[in-house]
Amino acid sequence: MPTTFPSDAYNGRRCPFALADLPAIAVGMLFFTSAFASVIRGNLADDLSKTGMIPLPLVGTIAIVVLLIEFVTSLLLLRRNQRSVGWCVAGGACTIFAVFHCASAFLGRVEACHCLAARISAPPQINHFIMLGICL
């Protein structure tokens, strides 16, 4: 029986995943780490409101939606049978992230943030472009 994806060729004898699973696992863990760090820090809404690009009544709702998208994306990427949906959601999330960072760098107030659970010790505007590069 022919296989569609290299990860489907796993025979169950040596390791629980195939080499083809590593990119999805790495990106899934990145999304999970980002969401988990945002929950632990607890001030994603503050970071979003500092940009001045989101109306204040919507900041809390958007922060919750961002966290849900990050958690769901990580789960979808870690499950083999949901991985294609996970890649689509991850691509959409990264596109939104990139557009928001470009708009924020040019139109909003640029302040230090903790994107993708990392804080880069650089001037805030450079920080936004470094995170944009990581996302792309």
Figure out the total of helices: 5
C-alpha termini separation:
36 Å
* Low-confidence runs: 1-5
What Rg, in angstroms, do the CA atoms define?
Answer: 17 Å
* Mean pLDDT score: 75
Structure class: mainly alpha
Order of helices and strands: HHHHH
**Could you give a short account of the major beta sheet?**
none
Portion in beta strands:
under 5%
Helical content class: 55-70%
Shape: elongated
Q: Tally of extended strands?
A: 0
Could you explain how this protein is built, in words?
The protein has 5 helices and no strands. The model is unreliable at about 1-5 (pLDDT under 50). The chain is mainly alpha-helical. The radius of gyration is 17 Å and the shape is elongated. Helices cover about 65% and strands about 0% of the residues. Helix 2 crosses helix 3 (about 55-80) and helix 3 (about 55-80) packs antiparallel against helix 4 (about 85-105).
How is this fold's topology laid out?
Blueprint: H1 22-41, H2 44-50, H3 56-78, H4 83-106, H5 124-135
Briefly say what this structure is:
Helices cover 63% and strands 0% of the residues.
Main attributes of the structure:
0% strand; 5 helices; 136 residues; mainly alpha; single chain
